[in-house]
Structures are given as C-alpha cells and as structure tokens.
C-alpha cells in the first residue's frame, strides 16, 4: 500500500523559522490545518509544535483539535452554512464572516450556548471570493457591533485563492485604513488586521508589509516552505516535509503506443498517436496509487529519469525508458508533492499516514 510520511524534524524547523520571523515583525499568527484533513496523527504533531491557534474550513476537524487540546483557539475560515451554525459555535472560538444575516444567526446561537463568539469581518480586496465590499463596510459593521455575544476582533481578507490576485502594499494599506475609519466612527477597538496568508509572506521578507497588518493565517508555507511569489523554497525552510511512497506492482517492457481502435478513456481523454514511436518500446511500471488519491500533475518524482504517463482510478503508470536503475516489482518509488497533491492524499483513506524522524 502507498504511504505518506510527515518528517517531524523538518516540520519543527519550518515552524520555528516562521515563529521567529513573526516575532521579529511583531505579528501574531495561526496555523491553517485544512491540508491535514482531520488526520489525528498529524494534528497531534502540529499541536506538539507549540501552536496556540489553529484555523480550518471543516468543523469536524476543529472538533478533533478541541478533543486533543481544548485550550487551542480554533478559527473557522469560511462562511458557515445556516444548518451548521450550532456546531460551528460549539467548536470554533472565532469565525470569518461576510454576511450580516449569518452573523445575526451566530449571535442567537452564541446566546443559546452562553458563549462569546469572536468575528473577523472579511473584506473584498479584488480576488472576488468572500468579502464585504469596502464601500459597504461601515454600514455592515454598524449592523453587527452591538449584537449580543458577538465580539468583532478583526478585519481580514483573502487574496490569490480564486482569481490569483496577488497581495500588494496598496491593498493591505487600504484594509488598515478601513480599520482606522471604523475605530474612529464607532469608538471601538479592532485588534486584528488579518490580511496575511502564505502568499503575503514574501511582502514581509521584502520589508514591504504595512505596519497595520498584524495577523497571519499560514498553511502552505509551513508545510512546504514555499515563497509563493517566486515559487521556490525559502532559505532555511524545507519543501519536503511530506513525501509519498508508492510500490511497483507491475514491471513490463511494452510498446510505446497502444494498439486497436481508440476511444475516450474513463477520464474523457483520447490518446494522440505519434507515428514516429511505432515499433519502439520501453519499460513501464504500475504503482499502487491512482486518481482516487491524487492528480498526477501534483506529483514531483524524486527520480527525474522517468515520466508519469497517466493514471486510472487506482493505478499510476510510469515510463522508465530502458530502466537504467533496474527498478523491479516490489520496489518503492518516492515523490515530493505540490500542495493540492498532498491535500488529495491526506483526504484519501487508502493511503497510510506515517510520521518519520
């Protein structure tokens, strides 16, 4: 069976690198755990790093975090559906919100549960996912700041999540100005401007982060050490905290081209024929992992001498050429992963999860 490893030492070093960076810049932060898909083994590793605040987009994952350590501050990071408000208030200390009606429902539920629920108002800054339009923000805040059992602790935004709009100093300054306007108009203190995510970290590294930005929500850079502006690993961090291992379950020398009448495969793909390859062959390996677990485009082979030809639901096909490294049935092939690849595998119950030193 294929298995995924989390390297404890590299994970700790990535965390310490970010922790030191945020402390130097006097910025608070929480870790986004949605990549871990509620895996208790890996959640415990995350909590053992010393994390005080964890963000997730699944209420069931927040429930597991509270089960492991009730003292962790939990943050629900997408608009909550009406039918899930009760569970969300129970397991999330904070939530990100952009709908007035929903916040009123949250207030009613918080009263029922005798809890103070904290709110970060999400503001639209151009990527066109969730967020209140800037010109409507003052009226929006006026509609919620006196609701019972609701405490507005921040303004936030998301960038690069839908249309790929990158954060900029100007956009972040604008968000800081919104905070100042609200504080002056309503004589209320808003502690956080939560505009930092992994994609904002390069602005901090380049000393271009406005001083008003004082809270980050970080996932990808912790797990993959990546600078999302330049798409390379940040110096002092690790890009291979996660590694995937898959076993060769068939090894045969076969023609490079299929034979017979061609039609669409189950994925709707039709093979294109390169006639120059007729009569040629190569060694093909089949691995015990497939599309149910991961999209092959998110896999990075450690051995750069073979190519991924494709996948079916449960098998991945490699072209090993003339097999110069003499791979054989039973051997294990290692891959590094892109973020979406790790997400798919962590969401798969068919791939074992292991902690390595």
UniProtKB/TrEMBL annotation:
Its EC number is 5.1.1.1. InterPro entries: Ala_racemase (IPR000821), Ala_racemase_N (IPR001608), PLP-binding_barrel (IPR029066). GO terms for molecular function: alanine racemase activity. Its cofactor is pyridoxal 5'-phosphate. SUPFAM superfamilies: PLP-binding barrel (SSF51419). Coiled coil: none annotated. Transmembrane segments: none annotated. Keywords: Isomerase, Pyridoxal phosphate. Residues 7-224 form the Alanine racemase N-terminal domain. It comes from the Bacteria. This is Alanine racemase.
């Amino acid at each position: 069976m294929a298995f995924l490893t989390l390297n404890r030492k590299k994970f700790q070093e990535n965390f310490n690198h970010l922790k030191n960076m945020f402390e130097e810049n006097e910025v608070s932060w929480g870790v986004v755990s949605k990549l871990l898909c509620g895996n208790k083994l890996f959640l415990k590793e995350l909590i053992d790093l010393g994390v005080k605040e964890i963000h997730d987009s699944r209420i069931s994952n927040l429930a597991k975090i509270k089960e492991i350590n009730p003292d962790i501050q939990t943050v629900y990071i997408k608009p909550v559906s009406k039918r899930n408000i009760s569970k969300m208030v129970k397991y999330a200390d904070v939530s990100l919100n952009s709908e007035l009606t929903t916040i009123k429902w949250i207030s009613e539920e918080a009263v029922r549960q005798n809890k103070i629920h904290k709110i970060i108002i999400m503001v639209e800054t151009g990527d066109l996912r969730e967020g209140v339009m800037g010109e409507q923000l003052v009226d929006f805040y006026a509609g919620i700041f006196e609701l019972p059992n609701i405490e507005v602790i921040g303004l936030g935004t998301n960038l690069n999540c839908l249309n790929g709009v990158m954060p900029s100093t100007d956009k972040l300054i604008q968000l800081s100005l919104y905070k100042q306007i609200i504080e002056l108009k309503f004589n209320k203190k808003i502690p956080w401007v939560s505009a930092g995510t992994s994609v904002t970290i390069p602005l901090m590294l380049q000393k271009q982060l406005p001083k008003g930005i004082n809270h980050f929500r970080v996932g990808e850079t912790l797990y993959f050490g990546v600078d999302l502006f330049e798409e390379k690993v940040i110096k002092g961090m690790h890009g291979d905290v996660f590694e995937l291992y898959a076993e060769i379950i068939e090894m045969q020398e076969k023609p490079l081209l299929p034979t017979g009448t061609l039609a669409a495969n189950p994925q709707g793909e039709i093979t294109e024929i390169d006639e120059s390859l007729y009569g040629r062959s190569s060694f093909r390996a089949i691995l015990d992992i497939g599309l149910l677990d991961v999209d092959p485009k998110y896999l990075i082979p450690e051995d750069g001498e073979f190519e991924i030809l494709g996948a079916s639901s449960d098998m991945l096909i490699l072209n090993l050429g003339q097999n110069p490294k003499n791979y054989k049935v039973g051997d294990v092939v290692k891959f590094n992963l892109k973020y979406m690849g790790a997400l798919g595998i962590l969401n798969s119950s068919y791939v074992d999860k292991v902690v390595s030193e």
